[in-house]
């Protein structure tokens, strides 16, 4: 992780906050599922620590007893740990941000074993380079593989969302209130030169776990962090790997959340 030089502070304090819990409805316990020699969460923490523009890594989990093992594992990986409510993840993020003192927050979900430090730094640099910007991501108009999603926002924007967001989908998924209100917040979308949004590199189902293990089996050597281009090259050489979890729709968790709300409140935006 990047460190501040001695003397005058050169940039805001940046924390990556990983939302994680063991009670996933589609694949329970996935945060600690073994992949390539260590749990999924371990790979995510390692990849975040490879970022240049990052000061702290925090795992924000719940106070439920089932998440005790997850919190203990995160602490053993030298990550900060914050524990809060299960369903109001926005509140959990807000309180974790307050506790860490972060001025800029990188939102990370604990089901993406291929988070790319270079992509994370790219989105973070967008916020750092524009003091008027509240939020940047590569998800508003997705062009990166699902699983390389990155959202970066200022603590001030998070605080405003925490105070004003009302819909369950806005509380459960942290950022919808921000990106649905471009009249209130200054937002930016980062695009990849090639549209790779049809690729699925996240874990929600058993097929996703099989895919991730196949990729790690081919590319994970020692503690080296392999990046997006290496995965793309692997899938070009072995296209059968990419077929393992093909056909699952993108952002299914968010879509299920808005389906549970009344029809008049359904949002047609892109998370």
Account of the 3D structure:
With 271 residues, this protein is an alpha/beta fold. It has eleven helices and nine strands. The strands form two sheets. Strands 5-4-1-6-8-7-9 form a seven-stranded mixed sheet, with helices on both faces. It has a two-stranded antiparallel ribbon with strand order 2-3. Helix 3 packs antiparallel against helix 5. The longest helix is centred in the C-terminal third of the chain and has 14 residues, at 206-219. The two termini are 27 Å apart. The model is unreliable at 3-8 and 264-271 (pLDDT under 50).
How does the SSE layout of this entry go?
Layout: E1 14-19, E2 34-35, E3 38-39, H1 40-49, E4 56-62, H2 68-76, E5 80-84, H3 89-100, E6 104-109, H4 117-128, E7 135-137, E8 151-154, H5 155-164, H6 168-172, H7 176-179, E9 187-189, H8 206-219, H9 228-237, H10 239-242, H11 252-260
Parallel strand pairs: 1-4, 1-6, 4-5, 7-9
Antiparallel strand pairs: 2-3, 6-8, 7-8
Helix pairs in contact: 3-5
Walk across the major sheet and give the strand order: 5-4-1-6-8-7-9
Principal-axes geometry comes out as globular
Distance between the termini: 27 Å
Strand content: 5-15%
Rg, nearest Å: 18 Å
Tell me the helix content.
25-40%
Structural class: alpha/beta
Order of helices and strands: EEEHEHEHEHEEHHHEHHHH
The profile of the biggest β sheet is: 7 strands, mixed
The overall average pLDDT, rounded, is: 91
Low-confidence stretches: 3-8, 264-271
Q: Please provide the count of β strands.
A: 9
**Tally of helical runs:** 11
